[in-house]
Amino acid sequence: MARSEADSAAPQVEVKYSLWQLVRYFLRLGSIGFGGPVALVGYMHRDLVEQRGWISAADYKEGLTLAQLAPGPMAAQTAIYIGYVHYRILGATLAGLAFALPSFLMVVALGWAYSRFGGLSWMQAVFYGVGAAVIGIIAISAQKLTVKSIGKDKLLGAIYLLLALVTVITETEIAWLFIAAGLLVWLWRVPPARWRGGGLAALLPLDLLPISAGLTTLDWPLLTQLGLFFAKAGAFVFGSGLAIVPFLYGGVVTEHHWLNEKQFVDAVAVAMITPGPVVITVGFIGYLVAGLPGACVAAMATFLPCYLFTIIPAPYFKKYGKLPAIVAFVDGVTAAAIGAITGSVIVLAKRSIVDLPTILIALLTMALLWKFKKLPEPVIVVGAALVGLAIYPLFHLG
Questions:
Q1: How far is residue 99's CA from residue 331's CA, in Å, rounded to a whole number?
Q2: Sequence-ordered list of residues with C-beta below 8 angstroms from that of 144, at least 6 positions apart, any chain
Q3: Domain extent at residue 351
Q4: What is the pTM assigned to this prediction?
Q5: Domain boundary residue among 45, 72, 95?
Q6: Contact at 8 Å (CB) between 22 and 87?
Q7: 88 in the same domain as 201
Q8: Mean of the pLDDT values across residues 225-237?
Q9: Does residue 100 belong to any structural domain of this protein?
Q10: pLDDT tens column, 330-377
Q11: Engineered SS bond to 384: which of 4, 86, 133, 264, CB 3.0-4.6 Å?
Q12: Confidence of residue 38 (pLDDT cuts 50, 70, 90)
């Protein structure tokens, strides 16, 4: 396959796989890939770079860097970029769809079961335990992200603490603070004299894309509203799919009142027990709000910005991706996102940690994940569900 002129500087390698082989790989990864975004991109490196040699280490690193740089869930964007490497837009499109489709179908099925049986005591018992475990999982994830991305940088630490505090107080996510954080770190680290003529121009497309990302031609007002909201949500997910949690809470629960607090925590729990990208929880939320059409609109609107933010800059990323101004901007936004995730742990805990058993489940979850670094999260979630089934009737007889 011919590569674009912008890609010509990369080492030329023989294409060792067909497009359909790549599609089948991502269908499989989307079906059995647990562990969150960091684990998923790790599987891609192990399978496609180290074992099969389909993708060069340089191409993989560029895709991962772009995924961390631009808004969008990291694992999904890395998959899209890998599809783009040798098969351009068609490859990017099919790779992204193959990666997200299995988990989407799973959350739709779970949404149907939740809507049909959610009022039954056994379903309430399952999510009683799972909801508490999810708080522990998110808390450990936030801790790992904080150590990895914030470190000892005082400016990033201040942004992190501010966003965590704002999220706890307002119980929502304020999108403009993310942009402000990026601009602050940009201007602090890279004074205007250093990025004159390059950095600003390279960032402009990132500001323009979300405006039209979620527009739809549907006549149903609710679906249109869903599409617009989830497109905005997809445009502000930086690095980890967990970054979407506080954003979704603010819109889905606080602003639009589509779900109550318990339903929202259950939606996050569903994301934890299904493989593939964590952000696919939007499909479950969309199903609860407007059935199958709502699930489709929510998922497509969320992934559209992520898709565009990958394929549009991909040909030019080699030239602009390492500009100090852009790197600084992303560091600031990432610090803000991690702060919001940390704050959301406290917000969500107030809804899920309701008695002594849920406190113990959450603490035990954190202890297990801290002690056993490679313990699969779905194992913990299944265990919490069984515990919930056993003890929920004892504490909620009425």
A1: 27
A2: 38
A3: 106-395
A4: 0.66
A5: 95
A6: yes
A7: no
A8: 84
A9: no
A10: 788 778 877 877 887 787 787 778 889 999 999 999 999 898 877 877
A11: 133
A12: low
